[in-house]
Amino acid sequence: MSKVDKLKAALLGATGMVGQRFVKLLENHEIFELSVVAASPMSAGKKYRDAAHWCIEGEIPEEIGEMKVVKASLEDVKREGQIDFVFSALPSEVAKTVEAEFAKAGVPVISDASAYRMEDDVPIIIGEVNPDHLEIVKKQSRRGWKSFIITNPNCTSNVLILALKPLQDQFGIKRVLVSTMQALSGAGWFGVTSMEILDNLIPYIKNEEEKVEREALKILGSFDGARINPASFKISASCHRVNVLEGHTEAIFIELEAKASRDEVAEAMRKFKGKPQELNLPTAPEKPIIVRDEEDRPQPRIDRYAGKGMSIVVGRIREDPIFENGIKFIALGHNTIRGAAGNAVLNAELAVKEGYI
Amino acid sequence: MSKVDKLKAALLGATGMVGQRFVKLLENHEIFELSVVAASPMSAGKKYRDAAHWCIEGEIPEEIGEMKVVKASLEDVKREGQIDFVFSALPSEVAKTVEAEFAKAGVPVISDASAYRMEDDVPIIIGEVNPDHLEIVKKQSRRGWKSFIITNPNCTSNVLILALKPLQDQFGIKRVLVSTMQALSGAGWFGVTSMEILDNLIPYIKNEEEKVEREALKILGSFDGARINPASFKISASCHRVNVLEGHTEAIFIELEAKASRDEVAEAMRKFKGKPQELNLPTAPEKPIIVRDEEDRPQPRIDRYAGKGMSIVVGRIREDPIFENGIKFIALGHNTIRGAAGNAVLNAELAVKEGYI
Amino acid sequence: MSKVDKLKAALLGATGMVGQRFVKLLENHEIFELSVVAASPMSAGKKYRDAAHWCIEGEIPEEIGEMKVVKASLEDVKREGQIDFVFSALPSEVAKTVEAEFAKAGVPVISDASAYRMEDDVPIIIGEVNPDHLEIVKKQSRRGWKSFIITNPNCTSNVLILALKPLQDQFGIKRVLVSTMQALSGAGWFGVTSMEILDNLIPYIKNEEEKVEREALKILGSFDGARINPASFKISASCHRVNVLEGHTEAIFIELEAKASRDEVAEAMRKFKGKPQELNLPTAPEKPIIVRDEEDRPQPRIDRYAGKGMSIVVGRIREDPIFENGIKFIALGHNTIRGAAGNAVLNAELAVKEGYI
Amino acid sequence: MSKVDKLKAALLGATGMVGQRFVKLLENHEIFELSVVAASPMSAGKKYRDAAHWCIEGEIPEEIGEMKVVKASLEDVKREGQIDFVFSALPSEVAKTVEAEFAKAGVPVISDASAYRMEDDVPIIIGEVNPDHLEIVKKQSRRGWKSFIITNPNCTSNVLILALKPLQDQFGIKRVLVSTMQALSGAGWFGVTSMEILDNLIPYIKNEEEKVEREALKILGSFDGARINPASFKISASCHRVNVLEGHTEAIFIELEAKASRDEVAEAMRKFKGKPQELNLPTAPEKPIIVRDEEDRPQPRIDRYAGKGMSIVVGRIREDPIFENGIKFIALGHNTIRGAAGNAVLNAELAVKEGYI
What CATH topology corresponds to C7-154+341-353? Predict the structure, then answer.
């Protein structure tokens, strides 16, 4: 696609860690062009290169580095020229107002913020899991909005839900317990000081367990044309921060509805594909779930970039007599790619292909 | 007690990390005197100072540093003079033969090795949990042994079981799921290379899950005078290594028999005491379980030395709707003190007080 | 000394990391009693326990934990009752005004802040190195001050200067190059984020090289009764942050005036003592410099608490043909004890013994 | 170049960390094909995939993963078919015999081992620094060898020497002091245990300082057609291990012959190019030295992959009054790419282009 035909996207919250992932993922994107970088008033007016504390692998794309950052408001973004939609990596408290402003004015919002996730008429989309939920955005017109907001799940939820989906489809799920070992980047650049985490771990992440427990049921719920009916299984999370840069690791214990052997679970995960793979979307990984047979994998440093950070990696699948149809395993995913920016880019691709943008 | 009246102990496996903890705990011990340090043939003949790669806080006790290491065999240890009992921190494969040799010859063995743990006539003792199991050592005479072996649980089991005991007593337990974040020292000095763990975690520890699942049921089982009947609840473990020097952290999910509120659980743990506290044993912590109310504790670097490493620390107690009477919390304990050398020293103190040594 | 006879000290900047070290060092101090804890307006009014984010080993002393924090101003501190002097761990920009306020009002200030270090009439004291410089505080009366300020060197300088002192005395120094590997705590709790230092190092510490280069010459200079004449050798520093909690390690290359063998250097350091040792001051370590012969020491995690954090540890002394009389070695010291709070407490003890307080 | 025309290389020591880097660098190489992987007898007979404990980024190239590892001996390698030359990443003690065996039999050896580095007739080559030293390999025929050995410098030397070369050429060098902060990978997978380096550093690396001091002078020496005359400046190294995966950082202090400003030094480094750039060799980085102006760079995690790991990165260039013409700066390079496998591949490319292979 020639550059002139690409869809123009603005990026709100462009300077943070997730913002930087967006910038990298949109570099040379097949159908999107990043045409505006927006952030807080403090960054506005600076070159992106100077405003962002660049901290991910690879260099800032030359052109973006030189771009002027504008304030993340409808007015300031529009002044920069025509855009087709926005990506939002805004902090949740800011997202509430700003995202609505864009949606109201007819600009689709593909958001990584948590502000609207649990609203009835807003879908939380994982392309491989619940692409049919997209349709609920039509209900947002009742808010008086000319366009809509599509949200991402929380990064921890994303990894978990991808692992659960083939099991839900094939065996049914009664109960899920998940204990996480989450990476530092999930808390942002300034989130965890070095003095608190060296030779240590922190067995608490504010609001995380609640998010995981709620979002999973919504995303794995069914859309009946009118509303999303949450999945009815039970879920319990215990969330912990460990001294790892990127990649959330999750120990997952599941009570299935139907009996499934270790091999049947592995097989269900290995063959799992979704709409992004069918539609051959640019950011879709070939395999959403990679199952490894080594006894000590997945490991975050080694496996986080599987499928360019868009695949999750599952290992150590074991039958678990704690439940009648018990199974346990380890899942790992890249929290700022699959768990954030990458999932949003995939959502935008899906929304375009399905005619929403 | 004057030095001449102290019980003389030999330490088998004195040079390793757990061996070093024994050395420190026995420095100025009220009733024990470390009189022989024994290790592998490679170390035999060297000064302890030169044989041990000292790696724990504090200095080698001057007198021990100058002691000559002997080979960990009955013959070599006996040649050094009269001893009253031995502590064993031997590798399991060596322990099998060597510990039996001592027990047969009439020397009590207080062991941290796993070799004999699951034998029917060998107790795994946590002083606060199952001191009554001690009596089963009498059955070991059927082996033709003049004395006996008392074992320690695995370090991860130890922390878990201490946390479970007051709940078992007061509310009953139906099911336990535990997901661990274990310290490097659990694998020994050479166990984990720096290249494999930096910016990483390893979601697998060989044989650990099996040990935790088996040992907990035996220790929390009941001794009927003839044999130990394992507890009948179900248990499932997922064990993981993280980049922390000392201190195992465990996320524990429990289905109780009877309903218990968050506060009732905290209260049961806080008031929990056992025989070591009753008998005022030298190594007994004042509180076996310390409950913290901060939202982000326990943390290994900060809490591992609670009760001089002999208390476990519990935090984040939450009611958990995943089960009818669900409860979840975080527990942490020092893996080479409470989880190894300290527990063994406490066992020896108990065995003395109860007349076994 | 009964509590009633102890000198009463206020601590300005009590909640930060150096403040916490002061609190610990003054717990059960022989001749000082911490009677007021003062900090920023944000902390004022809270209990110390709630205001301080306690992050060093050991617990907050019970009594201090319950103390109310007051604002770090003369007025607020005085309102709490009579004090004999203040310790200051204030940020430099605040220290400039507040410390002067106390000195002017007749309250001696023992400061760890850098604000006044390079003033002509203010001494930077290391008890073992330049106790005679104390006398220059008398000149501060020209400022219209009824009392005086005594300062500490920067933490990196402190370690370096202690190592240099016996060499300067015995062999003379022509040139010093120092390359540091500094601990995280030197930057304070929030100074270094985990994301910037994991699997990384930062080869830059703002203003540090300048401080080291200036302060060393002043402290090793001579006081002629009127002024301090800086030492005349040359010094160059390169300062770097590494992923270590506490303990600054320094690779030091020296051109001596006179030839000295490896053994002569070791001997000079080993026998080195100063006024604090002569006067048997409570916080004085028995040996200001501990020389180790192992080929791989000193190491921060293992050696930082030598002499309760008040000794520096030197190792790997080698003759160095790069210079005619070249010598190189590694020195290590605890940056928040010897390099900060501990040095200040020692200075206060010295000032009392010498009649200044 | 079609695969059939590529030069066939055997790789000795293929399973270690440097061996793995060779495997990655030779994947899809323009003119070389890796046709034999050889290692210790313990690995021989296994698939490469099973013999190597793969630990670097990216996957094992499919074809190599399936290759059978042979014993690293002339006989075993030859049995696999015709080869044009060998790369050696053997341990030094093995390299002494095995490399000679190949050279004697007419197979050129491009080695990363230290065994032959300091032999008079063996060059240590950095393509950008001393390509003219290659010619000395002709002298090796006196050993009765039909072919020759070309060696790599030690990884630490490599970074240092690249930084020194433009300064030597343009300003002359009198004295160099270097203090290193070296990555874990330099010690190999099992070289540093996690327990010794977490919250720590080790201020000693066996034999490293001697290697750096000797090799730099040889490589920066002049070849007069008969022998290499070492450079005559003085050099002193202090070498330290820090908790970083890859990338050696070096604080370098230099006394130049002629005055040079900060900008002149930066300019000399920026414009520096060598034969590999002239000849446009496949593995040559566009810029051997990248100079950064930020005050806190280079940093290993961020800068080690500059120029695909073949560029060194220099920052913090400062004039240094410690010497008449003093200059100091920080240099960083990827120790297993530029410092090992990458340099060897570049040497092989150079040797081919210059007609030696």
Answer: Rossmann fold (3.40.50)
